[in-house]
Amino acid sequence: MAERPDASATTIRINGHALVAEPEGALYWPEERTLIVADLHLEKGSAYAGRGQMLPPYDTAQTLARLEAVLRRVPADRVICLGDSFHDGRAGDRLSREDGARLRTTINGREWLWVVGNHDPSPCLEWGGKAVDDAVIGTLVFRHQAAAGAAAEVSGHYHPKAVVHVRGRRISRRCFVGDGRRLILPAFGAYTGGLNVLDRAIASLFRGQVVAHVLGGNRVRALPLSRLAPEWDAGQES
After folding, report:
1. What is the domain-level CATH number for residue 201?
2. How many domains does the chain have?
3. C-alpha pair distances (Å), 113 with each of 40, 179, 191
4. pTM (2 decimals)?
């Protein structure tokens, strides 16, 4: 399966391989029956609550529900989580019994790889899976943060987002960003923010023709960087 039969997802080619960008922000590799997600940041809400910043304590449940929805739709024998899956080193302790049971059920029967991230250098393995520094499948490398000069690489970390102007409105959406050599995934977590793809921290990682695959509703739309706006535009409201 190189392309989905509907308009809800789009095919992205990385180093000659066809992967499918799902509208929830996951990436699916049909040939390898592998689903890839980045930056779940489970239990971010409870981490903020512990510092007196009260957020609704539902981010983990929402993130797991979206992940379950994707896994019902695509036949994935392997799942790769590209780091920062847990918001901090104590996130596993704060995970509710119900959410822990959902996570265990989701992992059960699949090869599940927790790539380590800067937020979770020692991912909690209580519910299953294996922690790895990175994962190499075929000719692609899956890691948390893009490595300078690397190619054939899929990563997360930066939480890329795209800003577009539509009918006089300024709209910000999560996105994939890639140049055919490497791809950065959007954050999958419910409470994650984002960094504009035009920011130097992201833009400097790419060369050649760079495309943002922008999430919107139930669709993924490919846009060249020339169609995007910087984080702040004179005369435009945030």
Report:
1. 3.60.21
2. 1
3. 13, 25, 22
4. 0.91
